[in-house]
Specification:
This protein is of the alpha/beta class. It contains 14 helices and ten strands. The chain has two domains: about 190 residues, Rossmann fold (3-Layer(aba) Sandwich), CATH 3.40.50.880; about 100 residues, Arc Repressor Mutant, subunit A, CATH 1.10.10. The strands form four sheets. A four-stranded mixed β-sheet has the order 5-6-10-9, sandwiched between helices. A two-stranded parallel ribbon has the order 1-4. Strands 2-3 form a two-stranded antiparallel ribbon.
Length: about 325
């Protein structure tokens, strides 16, 4: 259960780089192979078949392994790909570097190689990832992470940025720029924040904190204080803050800010309101504070975000 594009695209990229090098009179650098537990793998309800170049036991040593994005039920997908786990671990011990694409990070995390390390994955799966792999430091919004020969990429098409990043690492900057131009990739893009949709962590069992989350989301246009929330939940402030952070992976202030900014994003996407109108609608009166927090969360200024997602916006 893997995403066929995340299998085909790395092969396409590094095969193309070999062609670029040969066209420049240089030798090809990469021996690109699809490796699997079986010779034929059915994907997406048997709509596609992938035929591997080699089986796991036929590859004794390699330099770089790509783990493609998984599809469907993630826990089932991980279970179906368990044969890959000891092979990936063994290859890494022999010096191979390992890169996960999008939610391939789940299988990479299952190897234990990410424990204590930073990792990125699709923003929509962040809460589930933290729940399943608490020993891994998930970096929200990141496009590429690298730590001790372990790489990961952000969501969906963000993995193209990791592919270009690795092309540069294994060749040079000029080749990476050529690849980026050929595949129409925005080189050096570092954040997927502009694409993120905040969904508060609700898989926890702390009903008091869920009550506070509901209040924040229903009253985001108002000024909400930590003391106010703690009083409503009949919990002491210090205990409330500790429980809130544990349950949601955000401080209370961060959560309030993210809910307000999500409302602002929706307004910028769908209305013709100006920056100040949206700012007041979500409970801010300080223009500088609003702009600073908006950019911190989305990676874009309010104007940049509106122009990116709302073609009908009034400038």
């Amino acid at each position: 259960m893997a995403v066929v594009e995340a299998i085909a695209d790395p092969r396409y990229m590094f095969t193309a780089v070999n062609q670029f090098l040969e066209s420049a009179g240089k030798p090809a650098l990469f021996n690109v192979q699809l490796v699997g537990a079986k010779k034929e793998v059915k994907l997406e309800g048997q709509l596609f078949s992938v035929h591997t170049d080699a089986l796991l036991n036929e590859v004794k040593e390699t330099d770089l392994i790509f783990i493609p994005a998984l599809g469907g039920d993630l826990k089932k997908a991980i279970e179906l790909n368990q044969a890959m786990v000891p092979w990936i671990i063994a290859q890494h011990k022999r010096g191979a570097e390992v890169a996960s694409l999008c939610i391939g990070a789940f299988l990479l995390a299952d190897t234990g190689l990410l424990d204590g390390k930073k990792c990125s994955t699709h923003w929509g799966f962040g809460n589930l990832f933290r729940q399943m792999y608490p020993a891994v430091e998930l970096v929200d919004g990141s496009i590429v992470t690298e730590e001790q020969g372990i790489y990961s990429s952000g969501g969906a098409n963000s993995y193209w940025n990791l592919l270009v990043y690795l092309v540069e690492k294994f060749t040079d900057r000029a080749t990476a720029i050529l690849a980026a131009k050929y595949f129409a990739i925005e080189i050096d893009r570092e954040s997927q924040n502009a694409f993120m949709m905040f969904k508060g962590q609700r898989s926890h069992e702390d009903e008091g904190i869920k009550k506070a989350q509901n209040f924040i989301e229903e009253n985001f246009q108002d000024k909400i204080s930590v003391d106010q929330l703690a009083d409503q939940c009949a919990i002491g402030r210090r205990s409330f803050e500790r429980r809130f952070k544990k349950a949601t992976n955000n401080t209370v202030v961060e959560y309030i800010q993210r809910v307000k900014m999500e409302a602002a994003k929706r307004s910028f996407e769908s209305s013709r309101k100006n920056i100040n109108e949206v700012m007041f609608d979500v409970g801010y009166t300080d223009t500088k504070a609003f702009r600073t927090i908006f950019k911190k969360i989305t990676g874009l200024t309010p104007i940049e975000y509106r122009n990116k997602y709302n073609k009908q916006a009034v400038l």
